[in-house]
Amino acid sequence: MASRIVRCAWSSKPASVCLALWFAVGVTTQRAAAASDPQQVAQDFYAVLLSTMRDGRSLGQNGRYARLAPVVNRTFDLAFMARLAVGPSWATLAPSEQQRLTDAFGNYISATYADRFNTYSGEQLKVTDERPYGSAVMVETKIVKSNGEATTLTYLMRHNLGAWQISDVYLDGTISQLAVQRSEFNAILRREGVDGLVMALNRKVDLLRSIARSS
Asked: Is residue 63 part of a domain?
């Protein structure tokens, strides 16, 4: 981490002011460094996910969704993910259609996390390693249940608009979320167009919420 030096004219400013300036610069530098660290992005996401799990029962599905949605929107490169999930047809869509699909895709991801991480039973969410992947980075994590059973999730991260963002998720390091979704999305888009795909994603969100209410 690059160090920053703040020089004060001690004769004209109290020492407390200089210390406050030094602390403020230090905190800003640390936050900037954290924002540029792919592992820190995953850790920050997991911290919110864990707090949501702990409060899961009292929040309910809608409360968990409301807490996670803003974090998903800034942590995931939703436009890139939606483009890859839709495939070559993306280039034929109008910008307004692309935005509608991006928004619906983001809602679906948020609802999925709100549904799957609904309660806390002693789980540990660990960021374990990272490795380069071309210009991107693969961040490896583990979700460990209280009985020791572990699931590996690997996040592919790209640098986008000055920050690292998640652009795909791999289950057990091999199964791409976007690859699984691409064939389904393409089939709906061919049959029903953009409106049909947006409606299908919205139905998935509604289904996740109804399952959560009935459980």
From this structure: yes
Helix, strand, coil shares of the chain as percentages rounded to 5?
Answer: 60, 20, 20
Q: Which domain holds residue 129?
A: 38-214
Examine residue 2 and state whether it is found in any structural domain, yes or no: no
Number of domains in the chain: 1
Q: Does the residue 28 lie in any domain?
A: no
CATH number at residue 102: 3.10.450.710
- For residue 210, what pLDDT band results from cuts at 50, 70 and 90? confident
Please give the torsion angle defined by the CA atoms of residues 112, 116, 119 and 124, in that order, rounded to the nearest 10 degrees: -110
In a domain, 88, yes or no: yes
Q: Are 164 and 158 in contact (CB under 8 A)?
A: yes
- State mean pLDDT over 170-176: 89
Q: What is the pLDDT of residues 60-90, one digit of tens each?
A: 999 999 999 999 999 999 999 999 999 888 9
**Sheet strands side by side (includes 150-160):** 124-133, 136-144, 150-160, 163-171, 175-176
CA separation for the pair 41, 153 (Å, rounded): 14
Model pTM score = 0.79
Q: In the numeric block, which tokens belong to residue 101? A: 């699909």
**The tokens of 157 are what?**
């991260």
**Helical pair 56-75 and 95-116, crossing angle rounded to 10 deg:** 140
Place of tokens 């049909």: 196
pLDDT of residue 168: 96
